[in-house]
Amino acid sequence: MPPPSQNPALHLLVLPEPFFVVKLQPGQEIAPCVLQDLTRGGEKGGGGFFSVTRTSEEVSVVGEAYRWMPKSYEEQSTWVCVKIRGPMEHSLTGVMASLTAPLKAAKVPVFALSTWNTDYVLVPKEMLADAVTTLERDGWVFAQGIKGKGNRVARL
What we know:
Residues 76-137 form the CASTOR ACT domain. The protein has four helices and nine strands; from the N terminus they run E-E-H-E-E-H-E-H-E-E-H-E-E. It has helices spanning 32-40, 71-74, 95-105, 128-137, and strands at 12-14, 19-24, 50-54, 59-64, 79-84, 111-114, 119-124, 146-148, 151-153.
């Protein structure tokens, strides 16, 4: 499924830092230092991207790896983030489906997140090259960046 538009807002970026995905049980405490870093918003060494989602079944903590994160989070920093440049119009439909369908066909696992401005798809580090190749073949455009080990990495 190619992108629903060739608008530059739908171009893709590979973010340079690894990402972590941590699952906690309901009632399990989020590490205090992680909560503190969440409120800092990337200042003073905290990661630049955090997402916390709570359901009755779990708490998912997702974020950009950073220097002083807890070891248990560091061990889960096995993902790379592909970001849709954005911001996207809310009238667009099928963007996430269009982005993830070719990855599904290529057997690339994803962890997807959305914000008000855009969508993010995390893929396992070792499958980034497959993900980039698959998406480019499908018609997705990666924004100008620097080449790193054969992959496009965003300049931030």
